[in-house]
Design brief:
Blueprint: E1 4-5, H1 8-12, H2 42-63, H3 68-101, E2 105-108, E3 121-122, H4 126-144, H5 152-175, H6 179-182, H7 185-189, H8 191-196, E4 202-204, H9 210-213, E5 217-219, H10 222-241, H11 248-270, H12 274-301, H13 310-327, H14 331-337, H15 339-352, E6 365-367, E7 372-374, H16 381-389, H17 394-418
Helix pairs in contact: 2-11, 2-12, 3-4, 3-12, 4-5, 4-12, 4-13, 5-13, 10-13, 10-15, 11-12, 11-13, 11-17, 12-13, 13-14
Length: 424
C-alpha cells in the first residue's frame, strides 16, 4: 500500500468528460510529450544484491559440499533470474508510461508541500515484476523438471496461486476494493495451492511438551490446510499494511527473500533426508527469480520513488513467500522471518478492527520546512519507530526499518538453530 493520494477526480468518484492528454502542459495543436522517468537507482539494487546474495552464494558453492547437479541447477536458475532482473529494468519505464496515460498515478503524501509532492507517480508497477517472475519460473520449469516429476504438480499449483494473486492485486489497484474484501482475496488465490497440496498434514510436538501431550507427532488433517490458508492470508496482508514510505514494501520483501534463500541452502547442506533436501531445493527455484526481479523494482521504488508498487506487488510478494514456505515445509521458520510484520499486525489490530478510529492512510506527518517525518498515534511500526527514536527523513526511516527486519531475520536464524535438537 503506497504512500499516495489519488487524483481528486478519481477520489471523488467523478468521471472526466474526456481523457486528458498524456502531457497536460503541451500546447494546443502540439503532440503530447511522453512522460520521462528519472533513471533507476541501480546503486541501491547492486548493493542489496551483493549484501544478500553473497552469503547464499558462499554457502551454496563454497561452504557446503552440495551435489554438482544441484549447483548446476542453481546456476541455471540464477542465470534466468538475472535475465529477469534486466527485463524488469527495461519494462518498468514502458509500463509506467501506459499507466500514466490511463491516469493510474498518485501523489506522494510524504512529500506534500514540496515540488516533488506534485509529481504524478505511476502506480501498480508490481504488475511488471509479477509477470516477468511468472515467465521466468515457467521457462525454468521446462528446463529442469521432467514430465513425471513428483514436484511438477505443486510447482504449477504454486505458480497458479501467485498468478491469481497478481490478478486480484491489480484488480484492487484499479477498483480500490474495501478492506473487508481485501481479506478474502488471498483466500481465493490460495485455492490452487490447497487443492494440489499432497504433503504431510502432521506436526512434530516440541520435545518439552511430549510428556504432557503423550504424542510425538500430531495429525491435523484438514486443520493443517486451514493453517496454510491463514498463513497465505497473513503473509499477503501483513506486507500490505507494513508500508507507506518509499522502498519499504520492496525492501522488506528483499530481506525476507534473502533470509529464505540462506535458510534453504543451510537446510540442504545440513540434512541427510532426501525429501527435505528436495523441498528446500524446490523453494530456491521459486525464490531466486522472485528476489532478482524485486531488486529491479527496488531500484525504481527507492527514495525518492519513481514508481509506486501498488497492492499488486504487496499481494504478489506475500503469496510468493507463503507458497515457498508451505511447499518448502518450513512455515514456522517463515513466520519467524515475518516477525516485524507480526509485530506490526498486533499493533495495528485496534485500528484494523475499528476498535479505535482508523484513517485511510496511517502515515506520519511530514514537515515541508525541515523535510522530516514525525510519528502520529497510529499503531504501526512506521509511527512507533518515529515516536521511539525521534523524527527523521523518509529515507533514514526506511533504512532503520529494513535494518530492524534484517536483525529480526538474524535473530530468527539464531533461535531456529539454537533450539534444534532440544525443541524438536
Amino acid at each position: 500500500m503506497s504512500a499516495r493520494r489519488r487524483p481528486a477526480a478519481a477520489a471523488a468518484g467523478a468521471t472526466p468528460s474526456q481523457p486528458p492528454p498524456a502531457d497536460a502542459a503541451a500546447a494546443p495543436g502540439e503532440p503530447a510529450k511522453e512522460p520521462v522517468l528519472r533513471p533507476p537507482n541501480l546503486g541501491v539494487a547492486a548493493a542489496a544484491a551483493v549484501l544478500f546474495l553473497a552469503p547464499f552464494s558462499y554457502l551454496a558453492f563454497v561452504h557446503y559440499p552440495l551435489d554438482a547437479d544441484l549447483r548446476g541447477s542453481i546456476l541455471k536458475c540464477g542465470a534466468m533470474s538475472l535475465g529477469g532482473f534486466f527485463i524488469v529494468l527495461k519494462l518498468i519505464p514502458v509500463a509506467a508510461r501506459y499507466h500514466l496515460r490511463r491516469r493510474m498515478f498518485g501523489y506522494d503524501i510524504n512529500k506534500k508541500g514540496l515540488p516533488t509532492g506534485e509529481i504524478k507517480v505511476p502506480e501498480a508497477l508490481g504488475l511488471v515484476v509479477g509477470i516477468v517472475y511468472l515467465v521466468t519460473a515457467i521457462i525454468f520449469q521446462q528446463f529442469h523438471y521432467a514430465e513425471d516429476s513428483i514436484w511438477l504438480v505443486e510447482y504449477n499449483a504454486a505458480l497458479a496461486s501467485v498468478c491469481f494473486m497478481i490478478l486480484l492485486g491489480f484488480v484492487d489497484d484499479v477498483l480500490d476494493i474495501p478492506w473487508r474484501v481485501k481479506l478474502a482475496l488471498p483466500t481465493i488465490a490460495a485455492l490452487p495451492l490447497l487443492m494440489a497440496y499432497a504433503g504431510g498434514t502432521s506436526i512434530i510436538i516440541p520435545k518439552p511438551l511430549t510428556p504432557y501431550v503423550g504424542l510425538t507427532v500430531l495429525e491435523l488433517g484438514l486443520f493443517y490446510k486451514l493453517f496454510m490458508l491463514l498463513l497465505a492470508v497473513f503473509c499477503t496482508n501483513s506486507i500490505n499494511i507494513h508500508a507507506g514510505i518509499n522502498g519499504l514494501e520492496v525492501g522488506q520483501t528483499v530481506v525476507i527473500s534473502a533470509a529464505v534463500l540462506i535458510h534453504n541452502v543451510m537446510r540442504i547442506g545440513s540434512s541427510t533426508d532426501i525429501e527435505t533436501q528436495q523441498a528446500h531445493e524446490f523453494s530456491i527455484y521459486l525464490v531466486l527469480p522472485f528476489l532478482t526481479t524485486s531488486l529491479a523494482l527496488l531500484a525504481f521504488n527507492w527514495y525518492p520513488s519513481i514508481v509506486f508498487v501498488g497492492d499488486t506487488y504487496t499481494y504478489f510478494a506475500g503469496m510468493a513467500l507463503a507458497v515457498v514456505g508451505i511447499l518448502g515445509h518450513f512455515s514456522e521458520t517463515l513466520l519467524l522471518f515475518f516477525l516485524p510484520q507480526v509485530l506490526n499486525f498486533l499493533c495495528s489490530v485496534p485500528q484494523l478492527f475499528h476498535f479505535v478510529p482508523c484513517p485511510r492512510h496511517r502515515l506520519p506527518r511530514f514537515d515541508p520546512q525541515t523535510g522530516l517525518l514525525t510519528g502520529t498515534k497510529d499503531g504501526n511500526l512506521v509511527n512507533i519507530f518515529l515516536r521511539l527514536f525521534g523524527k527523521c527523513s523518509e529515507k533514514a526511516l526506511c533504512i532503520r526499518l529494513l535494518i530492524f527486519q534484517a536483525l529480526c531475520c538474524v535473530f530468527c536464524f539464531w533461535l531456529r538453530y539454537m533450539l534444534t535438537g532440544w525443541y524438536k
